[in-house]
Structure formats: structure tokens, C-alpha cells
């Protein structure tokens, strides 16, 4: 037994015979008076208990529990489904005269065998064994009306639930339908209708594999296979568990139950209860009769653990209108709490029961365990039922089918073996029907291939809950059976065309991880379906695409690499069609297939970057891009402006195609990126023909002259070629003077005496200061200089860390970037992350603050609200490190970095620089330390000019560093 109560157990007082949070046996209680036929013999227990007993017709007790398939009670009547498929309703008797209820048989359609029933105020739903659903009147004053719900078509129904005036039905294909009154949004389809007899599809739950449905008075709960709980409808008392009391007309996720491993939900009139896999019970909603079990009559707006049941391993829960029952199989006891006004908890006391107490049954811990052992049910042979103001307990010799609910169709090993071994034609028709049912339903696909050992209960934006290796095994098996494989692919094609654009949960996005494994074949059909999947991915709303990207980033590397290879291959195929088209017809048509597959590949590339490059970059390159560059219609990156202009006029379509392709830089290797960037710059030159911008400077006043010129000029953009003129020197700038200028000014701006940048001694790197001293526009001007250098293909070797180039490309810096900039700070933070012992973390005396220097003083900055009072623990240390890194690279330098970027975008009007990765952009700014000297000799005449230039001399040379960098 746990020694501590969880923090959310806040029961103020407890029963005097109980320790905090633990159930203890009470003294034996006398059994309630029962009809003679129901009295227990010395050798066996009674098979059925009903509370309040006086209302029950004696004929009910004559039935053996083994003859009963299901009992359902609601309001002032209840229904019994017998094993033979017939239905009996016990109507309300004359309570004032003390008359018990009278049984009435329901007239069913011919050959109908009933699976289960559920009732509302005036109607009963009857579900046949074939999955057909019909609606029957339960009124005793009118002739029974029978309505087969034909609006559900041929959809087999597996679960039903009724509120006071609304109904729910779950199909085997994973679709949820509702109908009836909608005064509080209890249908989950919005508030535009107030009543409907026609079942409405709850579209917001499409794609979510539903495990169970439940209906309260005017609210609904739905449980997914991975323990997520959704609620909607009336919420006056907080019965939706969302933290507020406003009615909700569409399904909402109950975030407070995240990671609780919920396996069962139950709804009362205006309260709700949920059961976790660990046997914990949480309740919420109306508590006026004590039905929440928290030793109070207070309402609860969010799920709260029933403290008295903590550690008791509850196995069943059931909610009546104002009371709740729970069954603890390990103790062989049934506990109840809530209203006792009508005897629904089995005793004569009418006051509310605020904490769980055992029902007065002749069932103690010893014989309860004996009953379980004799029947081999481990408690599953006992069924508790609560409805209206009534309670029922059934003792069964065999497993009750409604302890384990019928569910939606999913793939499992047993089904797969049947599909593969199928040989007879009649069997094959059944298999095809089964495959069609599963693979035409997003919910059924998402409910298949779940991770074992309950790992799928942790499904979130980081954990998919899918065992991708199981999908691969499934693919390998069906691939060997062409008939099965083709049927799966046939249904998959229909499914891909109908995938929704939004989802309520990460569970609904599992299909995007499953489908690529099933489409890994290299035939035209698989390629076509991958294209359909790309369309569906790009249709997703932004928030859902972000979740999918997170799921992708957490895939195991081999599976993520497979996904990349699939779309890289498809991109190659589509681009090869372009080159064939160009060779054959001398023209191009840029179709949507190229756009879609390139875009998906680029998204995967961005995921790869954020995940720390799980897959090497060359897995994204598309070699066919080189063929496009080599076409006779393609742009030569080294044309002069006149030649470039003539080419643009004659090949405008091709130019636009290349421009579109540059939106997906992952398909380019470095050399092709440089070509594409030069083309982008030439495009700007062509669109804005002007004279060169000549910068006159004095060597001895280089920085001041430059900054003053830029301040005075203040153009909107700097789109002209740059020429540098040193005062008193005869040299003409053919490229060498400009390179010398940028080398010198970069060095002088970084000098400590300039007091512009913050310098880190151990790394010899610089960063922006949190406070700008001197001229307020200094970083704006430095940004302009950097942009002008890049636009004119020159280096500006500022010793910035990689974090700068990440920020320029909207990629967030990480702890690794802080280690590069400040090795001491980075290593200290890594030690915080790696520390195994809590006491050592406590000794560090860390909190959510950082020390910052302002002038001559040191100030403390909080990294989050009230950060000085939040100590760092194992639970929040990752948040602390992330906040520290974010403060260093973002929060503390917002103003200077913004100024730098504003200036850079003015100095470099060609947006093509975004085609580079952060590491590539850094190389373009600062240059590589290795050079391809053979290429250098080829592109320079004579090569000694460039060698001399690199040694610090100024000669006009006809090439730039772009042309001889070594690219890996």
C-alpha cells in the first residue's frame, strides 16, 4: 500500500475507521431482506441483488444470473436482456401501494436476437447481435412503437448509450452517431439544431479510435483506445471535467486526465467518473449528494482522485443519477457513495453518503475471493450496474460480455492469420469485407498496430502510440499474398482521398505514420498513393501539421529515413519527368505533383534539422536537379546582365519553375544552391537596373566613413553592385578591393576597443550585447554591411556562433549552440541535465533566474514568472535549461538582433540566401578553411592573382569565394 497520498487528493476529513486514503474492513453487516427465492444457501451466493429491494418484482429473483445477458436500469424502470435474446421491461409499480414492478416482454422483429439495450426517458435502444439498431417506446400508456434506425445504413453498431433525451451509437467502423435533444449541445455537432431524429455523425471525433461511449443526463463522455477522454454537452456542475461550467457543443479533450491510463468512463445524471488501468477512480461534476466521494457536497470542475479509494485497485465503476458504485475485486467488496434517499445504496438511512462505504451484501473479503477463484474470473464474474436511483449486482459463473465491451474493428495477429490462410471463396468474401471495414476507416487504422506493454497510453504530440515495426511485419506478410495485399491497397486508396484536414488528438494522426510503411513498394501504384498521401499531409491545418512533424521527429531513425527515402524517390521521379519533357518538347509544365512531393520532402528536411540531423543531408538531395541546370534552356549562373536579360525574356516559364523549386532547398546540393543564389541576385539586378554604388572611404577612418555614408544614403534597398574606392589610391575595384574592404572593416568592428560586441574569451566568439552602447543604429548598419557583402558575393568573417545563422533562418538555437559560444555555461547546464541525484541538484541552489550585467552592476532576471521562488528539480530542469538558452540567444538580445536583421534584409534584397542551411550560410558568410586549389587554378587567370589576394594583396580577380569553396 502506498504510504503517501497524491497531491490531488484533498479530502479534508476521513471516516474515523479509515486511515488516510486506504480502505479498511468494517464490522460485518446484516444482509438486506430478500425474497425467499433469492436467499443464499449455505453452499452458494445469491446471483442477483437489487436496491431498493421493495421495488423489484419477485419474478426477477427467480431468474438465474446465468440466464441474463445484460441488465440496464434508468429512471423508474429497468430492462433485462436474456441469453436467448429476448427483452423484458420491468415497469414502474405503484410505490404508494407498495406494489412491485411488473414484467413486460418487448415485441421484437422476427428472428431478432438482442445483444444489448440502453434506455432514455421515453425510448429504448435495442441492438441486435447482427449490429442492427432499433428504437422502442417504453411508455405503458401507448402502443409500443418500433423504429429501425435505417439512417445508419449498413453500418454495424457495436456500442450504444442513452442520456435523458439523447442517444449515441458507435459503429464497428469507428464512427460515432448521436440524435435526440440538443438543448445543451449534447449531440456534439454544434448548437444549430435543437432536436433531430436522424443520427448525426460527430465529425470532430473522426479518426480517433473509440474504445467506449457513455451518456449522462445531458452530457457525453468518449474514451479512446489509448486512454484519452473527450466530453461535451451540459456542464452546469463541471461534469465535463474541463475546469469551467459553460456548456460545450463539440467534443473537448479533458487535459486533466492526460497520462492517467483511463480504461473506463461512466456518466451519472450530472456527474462523471473515470477508472484508470491502475485501479484509481476520479470523479467530477455535481457533488450535492456526495456522489463524488470526496467527503463533501462540493462540485468539482476537474477530475479529482477519490482519496478513500486510493490503493484499493478498483476494477469497476458505475454511476447512477445521484450515486456511484465501485467494485474492488481484491477485497471482494462493492462500495457506494452518494444519495441514499430511495434506498439505492441498500440501507434505511436517507442521508447522503459522502465517502465510499461497503454495500450491505452477504459478501465479505473471504467468500468474495472464493467466488472469484471458483469461477476463474478474478472478479470479472461480478457486474455492478447503477442507473436512475437503483443499483444492481450480478454474480456470474462466466465472463460478462459487458465488462469487456465490443469495440471497433482493428488489425490483430488473429485476423491477419485468417486473411493469409484463407483459401475458400466464401471465406475470401468475408475477408474482403473485413479488410474493407478496417482500411476504409481512419479510426480503425489508427486503432491498429498499437505499442505493446501499455506504451500507447502515453500518446501525445511526441509519442505516436504506433509500433511501426508491427506495421512493417504486417506489410511483409501481406506482400507475400498478392490477393490480400491488393485488397488492402484498394481500400487504402479510398481512405487517402477522404482523410480529414483537422484532428482533435495525435491519435487521429497515426495514419500518417502507418500508410508510408504500407506504400513502400516501388511500383507506379505505390507512387500514386504516396502522392495522395502528400496531398492529405498538405491539407492538414497548421496546428495538426505541427503535431505530425513532432511525431515524425520522434520516429526511430531507420523508419524516419525510410520515410525520407520514399519522398526523395518520388521527387526524383517527378523531376525526371521535367527533364524528359524539356528534352522532348523543349518546354516545361510545372505540375502539382512536383510541387507537392518537393514540399513534403522540405517539411521532412526541416523536421530532420530540428531533430538534430537524424538523417544525413545527402538523403534529401535530388540528383535530377543537376540535369535541370544542364539543360540548354537553363540559366547560366555566370552570364553578364545583357545575356541574362535576353535569357529571361525568352525563357520566362523556365525561370519561374526554377524560382519555385528554390522554395525547397533540401533538393539542392551546395553547388546547386550557390548557382541558384547567384541567379536570384542577377534577377534583382535585372529588375532594378542602376549604376554601381561606389563607396568612398579613407583607410585611416574606414569604419567612421563607412557608417556615415550608410547613414546619409538611407536607401530602401541596396540592389546595386558595390564598388569600393580607397581615398588617394589609384586602384579600380574589380572585386579585390571590395573583399579587402570587408575583411578590414569586419576586423575593426570586432576589436574589443570598439565596444560593440560581447566577446567570449574561451571560444573567441562574439554575440550581441543585451544593452547597446554608443550609436543606437550600429547593429542596423552592421546588418546592412553584412547584407551588401552577401549580395555582392563577398565574405564578412564576423566570429559569430552558428546560433546567429540559425536565428536568421528561424531555427531555434539549442544547448549545443550555447556550448559553442560559452563552453563553461554550456557544460554547467549539461551537468544539471545529467545529474542523477536530487540532493545534489538541491545543493546547487538553482532557480529560474539568470544573472545579467547592466553597466557596472549585476542584476537578477527571472526566466519565468516568480522564477526566483521556483527551485530546479529533476522534473523542471529541462524547462530551466531551455529557458536559459532562450534568454541568452533570444530574450536578452531582441533589439540588437532585430536591428541587425532589418539592416541585413535591406542590404541583401535577394531573398535567395534562405536556400542555405545554417551551416552553409555560415560558410557563405565566413568562408571555408579548405579550398579546392585545382578548381581555383581553372577559374582564375592567372591563379597567382587569387593566391596573392588571399595573402592580403589587392588584385582585380574575376571570381569569388563562391567558385572555389570545397563543399562536402
What coarse outline follows from CA principal-axis ratios?
elongated
Number of strands: 33
Task: Give the structural class.
Answer: alpha+beta
| Second-tier CATH architecture of the largest domain | 7 Propeller
CATH class of the largest domain: Mainly Beta
Amino- and carboxy-terminal Cα gap: 60 Å
Overall structural domain count:
6
Regions with little confidence, pLDDT below 50 for 5+ residues? 1-43, 929-933, 939-968
How is the biggest beta sheet arranged? 4 strands, antiparallel
CATH superfamily of the largest domain: Regulator of chromosome condensation 1/beta-lactamase-inhibitor protein II
Summarize the structure.
The protein is 34% helix and 18% strand.
Report on the architecture of this protein.
- The chain is α+β, with helices and mostly antiparallel strands and 968 residues long.
- It folds into six domains: 47-395, Methylamine Dehydrogenase, Chain H; 417-522, no CATH class; 624-687, no CATH class; 693-813 and 895-927, Hect, E3 ligase catalytic domain fold (Alpha-Beta Complex); 817-889, 2-Layer Sandwich (Hect, E3 ligase catalytic domain); 928-968, no CATH class.
- The chain is built from 28 helices and 33 strands.
- The strands form ten sheets. The chain has a four-stranded antiparallel sheet, with no helix packed on it. The protein has a four-stranded antiparallel sheet with strand order 6-7-8-9, with no helix packed on it. The protein has a four-stranded antiparallel sheet with strand order 10-11-12-13, with no helix packed on it.
- Strand 11 and strand 12 form a beta hairpin.
- Helix 19 (778-791) runs parallel beside helix 25.
- Residues 1-40 are annotated as: Disordered.
- InterPro entries: HECT_dom, Hect_E3_ubiquitin_ligase, RCC1-like_dom, RCC1/BLIP-II, Reg_chr_condens, Ub-ligase/GTPase-reg.
- This is E3 ISG15--protein ligase HERC5-like isoform X1.
Amino acid at each position: 500500500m502506498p504510504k503517501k497520498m497524491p497531491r490531488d487528493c484533498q479530502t479534508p476529513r476521513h471516516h474515523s475507521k479509515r486511515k488516510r486514503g486506504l480502505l479498511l474492513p468494517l464490522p460485518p453487516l446484516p444482509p438486506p431482506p430478500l425474497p425467499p427465492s433469492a436467499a443464499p444457501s449455505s453452499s452458494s451466493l445469491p446471483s442477483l441483488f437489487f436496491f431498493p429491494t421493495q421495488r423489484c418484482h419477485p419474478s426477477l429473483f427467480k431468474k438465474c444470473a446465468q440466464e441474463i445477458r445484460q441488465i440496464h436500469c434508468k429512471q423508474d424502470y429497468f430492462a433485462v436482456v436474456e441469453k436467448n435474446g429476448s427483452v423484458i421491461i420491468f415497469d414502474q409499480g405503484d410505490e404508494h401501494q407498495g406494489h412491485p414492478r411488473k414484467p413486460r416482454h418487448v415485441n421484437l422483429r422476427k428472428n431478432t436476437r438482442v445483444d444489448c439495450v440502453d434506455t432514455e426517458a421515453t425510448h429504448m435502444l435495442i441492438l441486435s447481435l447482427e449490429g442492427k439498431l432499433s428504437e422502442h417506446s417504453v411508455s405503458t400508456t401507448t402502443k409500443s412503437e418500433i423504429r429501425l434506425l435505417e439512417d445508419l445504413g449498413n453500418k454495424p453498431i457495436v456500442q450504444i448509450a442513452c442520456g435523458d433525451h439523447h442517444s449515441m451509437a458507435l459503429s464497428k467502423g469507428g464512427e460515432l452517431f448521436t440524435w435526440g435533444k440538443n438543448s445543451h449541445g449534447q449531440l456534439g455537432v454544434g448548437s444549430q439544431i435543437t432536436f433531430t431524429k436522424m443520427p448525426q455523425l460527430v465529425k470532430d471525433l473522426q479518426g480517433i479510435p473509440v474504445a467506449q461511449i457513455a451518456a449522462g443526463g445531458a452530457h457525453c463522455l468518449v474514451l479512446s483506445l489509448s486512454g484519452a477522454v473527450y466530453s461535451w454537452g451540459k456542464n452546469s456542475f463541471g461534469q465535463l471535467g474541463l475546469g469551467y461550467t459553460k456548456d460545450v457543443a463539440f467534443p473537448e479533450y479533458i487535459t486533466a486526465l492526460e497520462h492517467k491510463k483511463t480504461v473506463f468512463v461512466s456518466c451519472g445524471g450530472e456527474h462523471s467518473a473515470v477508472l484508470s488501468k491502475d485501479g484509481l477512480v476520479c470523479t467530477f461534476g455535481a457533488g450535492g449528494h456526495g456522489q463524488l466521494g470526496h467527503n463533501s457536497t462540493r462540485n468539482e470542475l476537474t477530475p479529482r482522485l477519490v482519496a478513500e479509494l486510493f490503493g484499493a485497485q478498483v476494477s469497476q465503476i458505475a454511476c447512477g443519477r445521484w450515486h456511484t458504485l465501485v467494485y474492488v475485486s481484491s477485497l471482494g467488496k462493492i462500495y457506494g457513495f452518494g444519495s441514499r434517499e430511495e434506498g439505492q445504496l441498500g440501507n434505511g438511512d436517507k442521508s447522503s453518503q459522502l465517502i465510499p462505504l461497503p454495500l450491505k451484501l452477504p459478501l465479505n473479503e473471504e467468500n468474495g475471493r472464493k467466488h472469484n477463484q471458483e469461477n476463474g474470473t478474478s472478479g470479472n464474474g461480478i457486474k455492478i450496474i447503477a442507473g436512475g436511483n437503483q443499483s444492481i449486482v450480478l454474480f456470474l459463473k462466466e465472463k460478462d460480455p459487458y465488462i469487456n465491451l465490443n469495440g471497433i474493428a482493428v488489425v490483430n495477429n488473429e485476423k491477419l492469420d485468417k486473411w493469409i490462410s484463407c483459401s475458400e471463396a466464401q471465406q475470401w468474401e468475408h475477408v474482403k469485407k473485413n479488410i474493407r471495414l478496417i482500411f476504409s476507416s481512419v479510426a480503425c487504422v489508427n486503432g491498429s498496430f498499437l505499442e505493446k506493454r501499455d506504451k500507447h497510453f502515453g500518446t501525445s504530440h511526441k509519442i505516436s502510440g504506433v509500433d511501426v515495426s508491427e506495421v512493417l511485419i504486417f506489410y511483409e506478410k501481406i506482400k507475400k499474398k498478392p490477393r490480400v495485399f491488393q485488397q488492402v491497397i484498394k481500400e487504402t486508396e479510398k481512405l487517402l482521398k477522404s482523410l480529414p484536414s483537422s484532428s482533435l488528438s495525435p491519435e487521429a494522426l497515426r495514419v500518417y505514420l502507418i500508410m508510408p510503411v504500407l506504400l513502400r513498394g516501388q511500383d507506379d501504384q505505390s507512387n500514386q498513393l504516396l502522392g495522395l498521401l502528400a496531398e492529405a499531409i498538405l491539407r492538414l491545418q497548421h496546428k495538426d501539421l505541427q503535431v505530425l512533424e513532432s511525431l515524425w521527429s520522434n520516429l526511430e531513425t531507420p523508419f524516419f529515413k525510410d520515410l525520407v527515402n520514399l519522398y526523395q524517390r518520388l521527387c526524383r521521379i517527378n523531376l525526371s519527368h521535367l527533364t524528359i519533357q524539356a528534352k522532348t518538347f523543349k518546354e516545361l509544365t510545372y505540375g502539382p505533383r512536383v510541387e507537392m512531393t518537393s514540399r513534403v520532402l522540405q517539411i521532412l528536411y526541416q523536421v530532420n534539422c530540428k531533430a538534430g540531423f537524424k538523417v544525413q543531408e545527402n538523403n534529401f538531395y535530388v540528383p535530377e536537379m543537376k540535369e535541370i541546370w544542364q539543360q540548354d534552356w537553363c540559366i547560366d549562373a555566370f552570364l553578364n546582365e545583357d545575356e541574362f536579360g535576353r535569357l529571361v525574356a525568352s525563357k520566362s516559364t523556365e525561370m519561374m519553375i526554377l524560382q519555385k523549386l528554390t522554395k525547397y532547398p533540401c533538393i539542392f546540393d551546395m553547388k546547386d544552391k550557390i548557382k541558384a543564389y547567384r541567379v536570384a541576385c542577377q534577377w534583382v539586378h535585372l529588375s532594378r537596373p542602376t549604376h554601381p554604388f561606389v563607396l568612398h572611404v579613407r583607410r585611416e577612418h574606414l569604419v567612421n566613413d563607412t557608417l556615415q555614408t550608410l547613414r546619409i544614403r538611407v536607401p530602401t534597398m541596396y540592389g546595386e553592385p558595390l564598388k569600393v574606392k580607397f581615398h588617394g589610391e589609384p586602384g579600380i575595384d574589380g572585386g579585390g578591393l571590395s573583399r579587402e574592404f570587408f575583411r578590414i572593416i569586419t576586423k575593426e568592428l570586432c576589436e574589443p576597443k570598439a565596444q560593440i560586441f560581447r566577446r567570449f574569451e574561451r571560444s573567441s566568439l562574439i554575440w550581441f550585447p543585451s544593452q547597446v552602447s554608443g550609436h543606437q543604429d550600429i547593429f542596423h548598419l552592421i546588418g546592412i554591411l553584412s547584407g551588401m557583402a552577401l549580395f555582392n558575393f563577398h565574405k564578412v568573417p564576423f566570429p559569430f556562433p552558428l546560433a546567429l545563422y540559425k536565428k536568421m533562418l528561424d531555427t531555434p538555437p539549442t544547448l549545443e549552440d550555447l556550448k559553442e559560444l560559452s563552453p563553461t555555461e554550456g557544460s554547467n547546464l549539461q551537468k544539471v541535465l545529467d545529474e542523477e541525484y536530487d540532493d545534489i541538484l538541491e545543493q546547487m541552489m538553482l532557480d529560474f533566474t539568470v544573472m545579467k550585467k547592466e553597466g557596472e552592476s549585476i542584476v537578477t532576471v527571472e526566466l519565468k514568472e516568480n522564477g526566483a521562488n521556483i527551485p530546479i528539480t529533476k522534473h523542471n530542469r529541462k524547462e530551466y535549461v531551455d529557458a536559459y538558452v532562450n534568454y541568452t540567444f533570444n530574450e536578452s538580445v531582441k533589439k540588437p538582433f532585430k536591428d541587425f536583421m532589418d539592416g541585413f534584409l535591406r542590404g541583401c534584397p535577394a531573398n535567395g540566401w534562405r536556400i542555405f542551411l545554417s551551416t552553409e550560410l555560415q560558410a557563405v558568410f565566413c568562408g571555408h578553411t579548405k579550398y579546392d586549389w585545382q578548381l581555383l587554378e581553372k577559374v582564375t587567370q592567372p591563379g597567382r592573382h587569387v593566391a596573392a589576394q588571399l595573402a592580403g594583396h589587392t588584385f582585380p580577380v574575376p571570381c569569388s569565394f563562391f567558385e572555389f569553396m570545397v563543399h562536402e
